[in-house]
Design brief:
By secondary structure, the chain is an alpha+beta fold. Helices cover 21% and strands 35% of the residues. The chain has a 4-stranded mixed sheet, sandwiched between helices. The protein has a 3-stranded antiparallel sheet with strand order 3-2-7. The longest helix has 13 residues, at 44-56.
């Protein structure tokens, strides 16, 4: 079974990264990059933009940088996860968040080190390390 995931690193001019603390899903109570499962026949770029709008109320444009593509098998059942992580550079002064109430507990701008310290998702850690 394949699971396709699309994520985005939203990064400010100062190098701060947006992370959200989750209320539901695989990582309840943990901090993650915005993103989630792709819909059937949805392009990973569209999924990254859609998930960011759904989770954070933020309409983003992706940078023209190729996505970081990661793949791993995490479960005893052998479910294969493939993740596409894009980047979006923003002016943090122009950004305001409207977190999805039933999904997101908190949103924060974090330094790369803070983001790495809080990240629990293998995909998020790989993506943040690539910066």
């Amino acid at each position: 079974l394949h699971r396709l995931v699309s994520k985005v690193i939203i990064i400010s001019e100062e190098g701060k990264i947006v992370m959200a603390k989750l209320k539901r899903g695989h990582f309840v109570g943990a901090w993650t990059l915005p993103g989630g499962y792709l819909d059937y026949l949805e392009h990973p770029e569209q999924g990254a933009v859609r998930e960011t709008l759904e989770e954070l109320g933020l309409d983003i444009e992706l940078d023209g940088i190729a996505p970081l593509i990661s793949e791993n098998i995490f479960t005893d059942e052998g479910i294969n996860f493939v993740s596409f992580t894009y980047r979006s550079s923003v002016n943090s002064d122009d950004v305001s968040f409207t977190p999805k109430e039933d999904e997101i507990a908190e949103v924060a701008w974090l330094s790369k080190d803070e983001a790495l310290a809080r990240a629990v998702s293998w995909f998020d850690i790989k993506a943040i390390q690539s910066l």
